[in-house]
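Design review, sub-item: ligand-bound model
Attendees: FS, YL, KQ
YL presented the inputs for the zinc ion complex:
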Amino acid sequence: MSRDDKLRALEELQKVDLKIRDLAQQAERHPARLKQIEGGRDDAKAALDAQRGRLADNERARRQNEQLLQLEKEKVRKWESRLSELKTTREYAALARELDIAKKTNEGDEEEIRRLAGEYEEIRKGLAEMEKQLAEKDAVVASEGKQIHEDLAGVRASMEELEKERSAAIAHCDKSLVAKYERIRKQRGGIAVVPVEGMTCKGCQRNIPPQMANNLRSGGEILTCPNCNRFIYPAESESAAAGA
Ligand SMILES: [Zn+2]
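KQ shared the predicted structure:
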């Protein structure tokens, strides 16, 4: 296997590895989006539950006030019927004062019941709005969530294909170079094999020494950029090979 063949095989492996990296990055966005839309749905559900709790509290408070008012009204009626039976002015005055207080309390209770009834309508309106919002969020989870799950299944299938491609690509590589390729790839953002144009390494955009550029063109040994440590090959011969 010539030097150029070895580097071309590594570069083919690199192309597959870059596709795998892109696909993995694409797949990472899916769970984040899924979490976002499901989180939105859960928040809407929690808000609706809290509003239902407020409605139940309101209904309970109104029932209690109505029962209390009923009892107090009966008490007032009894007292009023007793007023005429009272013998002394002192007894009469005392009961009349009690009656006054009871009637004022009842007016306060009636006011509170009206307030609770008004509040009930507001809570009901809020509830209807929240139910609508939850239905919308549920629809997003149902449609977009389903799409995401389908996309993820597609990504998994593509990944399996790419892993097969990778096995095939690695089989064409010089085994002694693969470990070094892996090391450089991890250190250098996925790019381990780069062309040199003129004297410029296209990995780091810096010039290699002139003597090294000459050695690179004359072929033979595998060279790495003294700056970024990537495998380098002459771009000219690459394009000549591609044109041939
Ligand atoms: Zn370089």
